[in-house]
Design a protein that fits this description.
By secondary structure, the protein is an all-alpha fold. The protein has one domain. 67% of the residues lie in helices and 0% in strands. It has 6 helices and no strands. Helix 2 packs across helix 6 and helix 5 runs antiparallel to helix 6.
């Protein structure tokens, strides 16, 4: 690093609108919004709205731990929330250590864990 530069590695969502297409049950679960029922796209899920993949992870983990839901649903969703919280912390550490390779692998792991959580959420809605 130079005198006037700071090197930062970060992870950002490329297109926030893809979240509702990729993980619709999770988005609807953690960000209930009347737009989800009317047009299939969350009204507030617009670029710059701060609803990216990492925000989805954080909202899902918080919802599973503190949201109102039947105990059976919480039991079914808790393993996914635990895994996502762990991977999120590992990603933060990798980014802080400027370890791009580890961070890239962790983003894949987070997306895989979100896919699993989506499957569970869809099964619970059925």
């Amino acid at each position: 690093m130079g005198r006037n530069f700071f090197i930062r590695v970060s992870a950002e969502t490329y297109d926030e609108k893809e979240l509702i297409r990729t993980w619709p049950a999770l988005c609807t679960l953690v960000w209930p919004d009347e737009g989800a029922q009317k047009g299939g796209i969350l009204r507030n899920l617009l670029p710059g709205a701060g609803r990216g993949v990492l925000q989805l992870v954080d909202a899902f983990v918080e919802y599973v731990h503190f949201g109102k839901m039947p105990g059976a649903a919480r039991s079914d969703l808790t393993p996914a929330a635990t895994e996502l919280a762990k991977k999120r912390a590992e990603l933060d550490e990798a980014l802080g250590n400027r370890d791009v390779r580890a961070a890239s692998g962790l983003t894949d792991a987070i997306e895989d864990a979100l896919d699993e959580a989506e499957s569970v959420a869809k099964r619970l809605r059925a």
